[in-house]
Amino acid sequence: MMSESYIFETKITSEIVIKFLDNYVQKIDKLTVVVIDNAPIHTSKAFQKKIASVATEKIGNLLVTHLFTPT
């Protein structure tokens, strides 16, 4: 898979990250690791629902892990 860059000139929201994830997972063809921290966009209910469904759909190619961030 070719590396891609994204430039946003607006506030990044959960909705934007979910759209990115939808696009990105269509291109996954080998093991991919997604690291999630405690950023509000990663802890929103909408994002948590999406990442759970994506991990289920791409089982074997997608590993989702949480980066420990002290609060």
How would you portray this structure in words?
The protein has a domain at 14-21 and 29-66. The chain is of the alpha+beta class. It has helices at 14-25, 40-43, 45-57, and strands at residues 32-36, 62-66. Strands 1-2 form a two-stranded parallel sheet. Helix content is 41%, strand content 14%.
Give the gist of this structure:
The chain is of the alpha+beta class.
Low-confidence stretches: none
Instruction: Tell me the distance between the termini.
Output: 35 Å
User: In DSSP terms, counting alpha (H) and pi (I) runs of 4 or more, how many helices?
Assistant: 3
Tell me, briefly, the overall form. globular
Q: What's the number of extended β-strand segments?
A: 2
Helix content: 40-55%
Please give the order of strands in the largest beta sheet.
1-2
- Main structural class: alpha+beta
Q: What is the arithmetic mean of pLDDT?
A: 80
Order of helices and strands: HEHHE
Radius of gyration: 12 Å
Strand content: 5-15%
Biggest sheet, open or closed, and with what strands and sense? 2 strands, parallel
What would the keywords be for this entry?
71 residues; alpha+beta; 41% helix; 14% strand
Mind sketching the topology for me?
Blueprint: H1 14-25, E1 32-36, H2 40-43, H3 45-57, E2 62-66
Parallel strand pairs: 1-2
Helix pairs in contact: 1-3
